[in-house]
Design goal:
There is one protein chain. The chain has two domains: about 120 residues, Ribosomal protein L10, N-terminal RNA-binding domain (Alpha-Beta Plaits); about 40 residues. The protein starts with a helix and ends with a helix. It contains six helices and five strands, in the order αβαβαβαββαα. It is about 60% helix and about 15% strand. The longest helix has about 40 residues. Helix 1 packs across helix 3. It has about 170 residues and is of the alpha+beta class. It is elongated.
């Protein structure tokens, strides 16, 4: 049982967390055991995401004074929140685990000041991460340069091959 002081500290901490992050993804985890939750939590932590099993009544108090106040209705039953500045990675990890285990159910999210439905979170999970998008852009930009170099170098390499073949004949 939490004391009043602990509850106050919890509310203050949650207010700071909700206010200082860009995205919140909410999931219900009824039926998951501690080991399964720890596995999700550890993967989230590696990506810089806070995966917090919440105390619903107290979390609702913290939400009332933040930009995420519209999420209050989703905090019922066994609830966890993935809180981060990277909504795509949060959604990807939750979607991966929800796909593999029917006990984890994504119920909502919050991003750019808007509440997201579960379907919206699933769509976000299909987007490339920032690093993946950067890699694709670099690939697109570097491909033409590689083609130009191969075209420019082709005549020289063909001459070298012909010269080598000619020298073998003699």
């Amino acid at each position: 049982m939490m004391t009043k002081e602990q509850k106050k500290n919890y509310v203050d901490e949650m207010k700071k967390i909700f206010s200082s992050n860009e995205a919140v993804m909410i999931a219900h985890y009824k039926g998951l055991n501690v080991n399964q939750l720890d596995k999700i939590r550890n993967e989230m932590r590696k990506s810089g995401i806070l995966f917090k099993v919440t105390k619903n009544r107290i979390t609702k108090l913290a939400l009332k004074e933040t930009k995420c106040k519209d999420l209050e209705k989703f905090f019922s039953g066994p609830t966890a929140a993935a809180i981060s500045s990277d909504p795509i990675m949060s959604a990807k990890i939750l979607a991966k685990y929800a796909k593999g285990d029917s006990h984890l159910k994504i119920v909502a999210g919050f991003m750019d000041g808007k509440v997201l439905e579960a379907e919206d979170v699933a769509k976000i999970a299909t987007l490339p991460t920032l690093d993946e998008a950067r890699a694709k852009i670099v690939g697109i930009l570097s491909t033409p340069a590689q083609k130009i170099m191969s075209i420019l170098l082709a005549p020289g390499s063909k001459i070298a091959i012909l010269a080598h073949a000619k020298s073998k004949k003699n």
